[in-house]
Amino acid sequence: MKRTNAKSIAEIIGDFMQQEDIETAVLEHKALHLWGQVVGPGVNRMTTERYVDDGVITVKISSAALRNDLMLTRSSIIEQLNNLVGKPVIKEIIFR
Q1: Euclidean distance between CA atoms 40 and 70, whole angstroms
Q2: pLDDT at site 36
Q3: Which residues pair with 93 in a beta bridge?
Q4: Least enclosed by CB within 10 Å: which of 16, 38, 41, 84?
């Protein structure tokens, strides 16, 4: 018996992730992992804690001045993160 609709492993995993609705969660965590690449090593060193929940990244910054600067560039950071993951999964960033 010959199969005519063969799929690659990547397609099978992608279909499974969409079917189980976990694709968004995986992309959110990928965006969180890319945080240091987007903001740079200096800002990343000042980041003491970060997590993502339902499209909202919460980041604890140890410097108040840096926190204020990041608030001004928040929309740019969100755009860069979403571009890197390929879908608009990050909606907001909260700085604490």
Answers
A1: 12
A2: 95
A3: 57
A4: 41
Concatenated DSSP letters of the chain: ---SS---HHHHHHHHHHHTT-HHHHHHHHHHHTHHHHH-HHHHHHEEEEEEETTEEEEEES-HHHHHHHHHTHHHHHHHHHHHHTS----EEEE-
**Measured distance CA(47)–CA(36) in Å, rounded:** 9
- Residue pair 27/89 in contact (Cβ under 8 Å)? The answer is yes
* Side chain identity, residue 20: E
> What is the C-alpha to C-alpha distance for residues 62 and 11, in angstroms, rounded to an integer?
42
Of 3, 16, 67, 11, the C-alpha closest to 39 is: 67
**How far apart (Å, rounded) are the C-alpha atoms in residues 90 and 9?**
27
Provide the residue-wise pLDDT of the chain in tens; the chain has 96 residues.
Answer: 566 778 889 888 888 877 777 888 899 999 999 999 999 999 999 999 999 999 999 999 999 999 999 999 999 999 999 999 999 999 999 999
